[in-house]
């Protein structure tokens, strides 16, 4: 457990150093370049959000596909119909 906390502590320190270095470099940039950096950061944030949305997200695009054919059919009948689609 101590080793894990030590590694976590190191990762946090490195992350803080990187954030400080980014802030220092951005501070020295002219205005138009700062806007480009901000736009790039926003792009990265959108990409990260999209990746989060893809992980483990369930899709119910199939919902209702069997509605018209499911009347008076058993679950086994529906399973056979699904296998025919593949």
Summary, kept brief:
The protein has about 90 residues and is an all-alpha fold. It has one domain (about 1-85).
Order of helices and strands: HHH
> What count of domains describes the coordinates?
1
- Gross geometry: elongated
User: Which class of secondary structure composition applies to the elements?
Assistant: mainly alpha
The profile of the biggest β sheet is: none
Q: How far apart are the first and last residues' alpha carbons, in Å?
A: 49 Å
Query: What Rg do the Cα atoms give?
Result: 26 Å
Blueprint (SSEs and pairs):
Elements: H1 2-27, H2 31-54, H3 75-85
Textual characterization of the structure:
The model has no long low-confidence stretch (mean pLDDT about 80). The protein has helices spanning about 1-25, 30-55, 75-85. With about 90 residues, it is mainly α. The chain contains 3 helices and no strands.
Q: How would you describe this structure in keywords?
A:
3 helices, elongated, 86 residues, mainly alpha
């Amino acid at each position: 457990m101590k080793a894990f906390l030590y590694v976590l502590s190191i990762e946090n320190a490195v992350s803080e150093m990187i954030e400080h270095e980014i802030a220092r470099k951005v501070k020295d940039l002219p205005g138009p370049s700062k806007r480009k950096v901000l736009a790039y950061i926003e792009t990265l944030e959108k990409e990260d959000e999209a990746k989060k949305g893809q992980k483990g997200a369930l899709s119910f695009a199939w919902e209702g596909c069997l509605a018209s054919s499911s009347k008076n059919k058993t679950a086994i009948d529906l399973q056979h119909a699904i296998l025919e689609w593949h």
